[in-house]
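The aim of this short unit is practical: by the end, you should be able to scan a pair of folded records and say something sensible about each. We start with the first protein, listed as its amino acid sequence and then its structure tokens.
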Amino acid sequence: MHPTLPLLQNSEFPEIKRTSLQTVQVNLGYLCNQQCLHCHVNAGPNRKELMDAETIGHVLSFLQHSDANTLDLTGGAPELNPNFRSIVRQAREQGCRVIDRCNLTVLNEPGQEDLVDFLANNQVEVTASLPCYLEENVDAQRGKGVFDSSIHALKRLNEAGYGQKDTGLILNLVYNPQGAELPPPQCALEQDYKKMLKNNYNIDFNSLFTITNMPIKRFGSLLVSKGRFENYIDLLKQSSRSENLDSVMCKSLISIDWQGYLYDCDFNQMLELPIAGKTEKKMHISHVNTAELLQRQIAVADHCYACTAGQGSSCGGAFEA
């Protein structure tokens, strides 16, 4: 795999600082039942890195004593971590909003037959990856049979009340482009998704999030191999809008890796750009408090232009309505 950090570091991206802490995003490990071309985590079925119970305990303790109100669980497939249900239960007991970033097909894996009911019973918000509403496109990006499995999982979520009126069970879908281009306007694409999924499969969901592909890890390496890396970075830079700087997710979020170390975002985590910057010792969740994180300068590089390009991009989708 081609390293991308050396190609990103000589950056003129503006300086930004964290102004609040609302979301703690936790990567529970790189184990995944899928191996997608666009994956910025390089997750897959053979990855062994998983957050252990002790580190999860530190995360929950930090949450309890911080101002953060949202626990955002990601991976890999976070549900494959043996401690997934434990951290969900305890975070919900502490009053935290919990988001599960789900690849959908994991809901159909052996041993996960009751996972949908577990998520519903704990009122976990499901943010599910579905990069297109067409079978051919999804299977090309994520593997043969993934679309059918995803549709089956979405139907199960609907049956449990997700995406339905007056249930309080939130089901959001995530779109990312097939390649080295920006996402289309989020609002219009959401309407297309809702129409196609309802008409063809009788599936409902709440919102669609469009996310720009990050030029790092597996996707970044693919761009390098095809000689398209510099062109993609140029596209991101030329499309960057200064007004999007006010809404970038790193200003109110921290990211924690499977070992408990802190980063400004999930993308910096994958590039091993720690929250403390290049010259300081890495910070661990067991030895940090909220005050230490506020007004701290955020580590940036050229990949950050993906968050400010066009309509903007974050884990919550585009910044524009």
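Turning to the second protein, read its sequence before its tokens, just as you did above.
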Amino acid sequence: MLRILLVVLALGVTVVGCSQTTVEPVDPPVYDPTPFMLNLKGLPPPPGMPPDNPLTVQGVALGKMLFHERQLSATGTQSCADCHVQSAGFSDGRRYSVGVRGAEGTRQSMAIFNLAWRRPGPQGGFFWDGRSQQLRHQVLIPIQDPVEMDADLDDIIARLQASEGYRNQWIRAFGTDSITSRTLSLALEQFLLSVVSGNTRFDRAQRGELQLSPAEQRGRDLFFREVDPLRGIKGAECFHCHGGPQFTNSQFMNNGLDAEAGFADLGRFRVTQNPRDRARFLSPTLRNIALTAPYMHDGRFASLEEVIDHYNTGVRSSATLELPLMQFNIRPGGLGLTPQDRADLVAFLRTLTDDSLAVDASYSP
């Protein structure tokens, strides 16, 4: 009898214990301004983070949620991440991205890592033509573009405001559950500024952690060398437009894709109306270039080999063609790169791939 009583008492304690654990109150969300420590991954400090939008742990987390949120599109079927795919270096493997209505764009999706090093303002900016001077402005344009996500900002804000999860995260990130298009853009800006790529074979070789192969080193030498036909020195002259830690000069350039009469896209000219900007486009970073095919603003080249062939013998003359290309690339025989030279250049360009970027859970949904 005593044994039965003990069993009954034990069961009673177990039931009471379980019922108590299910009614513990949940702490309400609170504002958390803990700074987000940007991992530079060996790169030099970015030239200037926005002073009015410092990165915080909760702000970056909210931006990441929004980057992968398909409710930011009119049909609820497309997110920013669908055209900026992590495994493709945050670019799009298609020549032109397809919007929510099935329409194609007219330019290839740019890679959007290391934006903390992109030069903002009237002389820099975002998109191939630099039409947006600040990242926080840029992020709202595809959401509203009828060819892309085709959403109305007021509708998007209403959708987010109806979500308790988003209201709570807004409190953690901004101290209020009142969602606005401005704070939406600031959260997206924070997340995109947190996406850093800097652990390539090239970077590890620069740090002395490994040695480039003979082919990679020959390609590196060609990449950073100027042509001097009088002295018989061969070079690819790539560094003029793709120099520095980010492998870009962050300027708008005409790289000779078309002759004057063949300009289908006037590029920077559409923003400035300056004739000197006809057919000029932002010089993209070559980091992760092996992941971001196809290439050029219109995705016309499917491979790195095609790109190198263009610069070797395919550059076409026009009034706004860059001077280094005009001097050497359009002469008879072009740069005179041999098949081995071109293969070595491809080998070097592949050392600029950061394999960790494609699988880094910090940026995944």
